Amino acid sequence: MAEGKQGWTTLLMFICVCITVGTVIPIGYAFAVVNAPSTFIRSWIMESALTRYSSRLGESQVTIMMSAVVSIFLIGGMLGAPFAPIFSARLGRRGILVLSGMLILVSCICQLFCRMANSIEMLLLGRLIGGLAAALIYATQPMYLVELAPAELSGSVGVFTCIGITGGIVLGQVISFNFVLGTEKLWPYALAGSGIFVIIGLAPIFWFPESPRFLMSQGRREKARVALMRLRRDEARVNAEMAEFEVTSEAEGQKITMKEVLCNSKLKMPLIIVSSFHFVQQMSGINAIWFYSVDIFTQSGFTLAVSLWLNFALGFLNFVVALVGPLIMRRVNRRLMMMLSCLFSAIFLTLLVVGLKLMLSIKEFSFVCIAFLSLYILAFNVGLGPIPYFIGSEIFEPAPRPLAMAFGSFFNWFANFLLGMMFPILNAVIGPYAFLICAAFCVYGFLLTCRYLPETRNRELKDVAPLMENGFRSKIK
Fold first, then answer.
1. C-alpha angle with apex 320: 371 to 433, nearest 5 degrees?
2. Does domain 256-477 have CATH number 1.20.1250.20?
3. Which InterPro entries match (predicted)?
4. Backbone conformation region of residue 85, classed left if phi is above 0, alpha if psi is from -120 to 50, else beta
5. Is 54 exposed, middle or buried (CB count within 10 Å of its CB: 0-12, 13-18, 19+)?
6. What's CA 11's distance to the chain center, in Å?
7. Residues contacting 84, CB < 8 A, separation 6+
8. What is the Cα–Cα distance from 33 to 193, expressed in whole angstroms?
9. Rounded CA gap, 450 and 95, in Å?
């Protein structure tokens, strides 16, 4: 590791904020914005089918179409994940983020004009393209920021992905309120609103440096040095990091396929960790919480309008806790935070199940459930929320890193889709006990971290990677 600690610089902070606003906030926005105006979208779907195809859709058919509008974004994420390493190798980290921004703008255009064109297909296409862009962002944005930052800030910049997602969810909730754009006339503008963040956030992106590691892997040594000097402004630090790059540049420049990554026994455990962390993040039930929270508030005696505001308050709490992530990740070990996050998430989900059952007979327990929801969100955001996005950058060598990040991204999208499809069914069959399944995944995340994840904070990759080379026989240190 380069000698001497280096803190935040104005340029690095500016890059982190802009890239987060222009790429990650639109993803969180897309998750949240369709919920409030869903009634108006359903009515429009019925009218469009009747006028274009002379087909009168039943209630169940409209429900299926509305589910498709929501879930096709996740399908786009699964389809786009395998392409991330291909584009990353050819366009670079910065180039793939530019491509993602362009795709989001195309997605916004489709959603903005779908009602004008009276085309359900255009709405579905817009959501699909948005999902494709989001997959590229998930696999690239954390890697780009980590590769720009000094090693001691890798965790701090890595949590900007979580900040962007939670911030986007809050903004999507605000924009879709009926006193903003969530009305019968304005809902297409609400769906397309993420384009504004892309334009604002990515406007200066061509002024930002490309990843020095990527430049070195392409043999552009002088450009890598210039980029590092802009970022560090410390010649001694730059010389030390360039020396490190020289050692690894030959390996970084080698082409590696997904088959080689999957078949390499030394990469088995890192790949399991990255994929499992992404899978557990979604299967822990964070999105199911948003599905259930409004019901808990209404059963507590609040009106639907107040319940929606309380649901927004939970989303805002989610965002505020994510904001302190950079401070936490710089000062606390990854392994400890991930274990605590998984353990307490499992505990609070289990307590939530107990509270939800008792709430049926003792109304006062509804307020206890609200407390458990808030505590779960706190537990989730100290580890499960941010760590899966950047842990791949800290345990994978540069050559297989883009493929590994894309692989983890696929499992994130797949788990999100799986939970979205299965949770309503499980909730209908077994009620609140469905959260026990989410708690079980949190326990799996705790055990995997406890047994196999080595500490990565303030450690060089060459010291971390050998600790996982023996697969399930690996020993952490």
1. 35
2. yes
3. GLUT, MFS_dom, MFS_sugar_transport-like, MFS_trans_sf, Sugar/inositol_transpt
4. alpha
5. exposed
6. 24
7. 96, 135, 136, 138, 139, 140, 402, 405, 406, 409
8. 9
9. 37
The domain ranges of the chain are 1-208, 256-477
Q: What are 57-94's pLDDT values in tens digits?
A: 888 888 888 888 988 999 999 999 888 888 887 888 99
Query: Residue 385, SS3?
Result: coil
Residue 285 CB contacts under 8 Å (≥ 6 apart), including other chains: 349, 419, 423, 435, 438, 439
Place of tokens 């902070």: 13
Between CA 234 and CA 243, with CA 238 as vertex, the angle to 5 degrees is 155
The tokens for 454 are: 């080595």
Contact between 32 and 180 (Cβ < 8 Å): no
Task: Calculate the alpha carbon distances from 135 to 77, 197, 340, 412, 426 in Å.
Answer: 5, 17, 28, 9, 27
- Domain pair 1-208 / 256-477, same fold: yes
Whole-angstrom Cα distance, residue 448 to residue 86? 30
CATH of region 1-208, choose from 2.60.120.1440, 1.10.3080.10, 1.10.150.650, 1.20.1250.20: 1.20.1250.20
Question: Rounded CA gap, 128 and 119, in Å?
Answer: 14
Structure-token pair, residue 153: 């800030």
What is the C-alpha to C-alpha distance for residues 30 and 171, in angstroms, rounded to an integer? 10
Contact of 145 with 19, CB cutoff 8 Å: yes
The beta strand positions in 124-203, using DSSP E, are: none
Compute the average pLDDT of residues 262-275: 88
- Residue 27 neighbours by CB under 8 Å, 6+ apart: 134, 137, 138, 164, 165, 168
Helical H segments across 360-433, by residue range: 365-381, 387-395, 401-430
Place of tokens 């996050």: 341
- The pLDDT value given to residue 179: 86
Residue 168 · residue 31 · CB < 8 Å: yes
Provide the whole-model pTM: 0.86
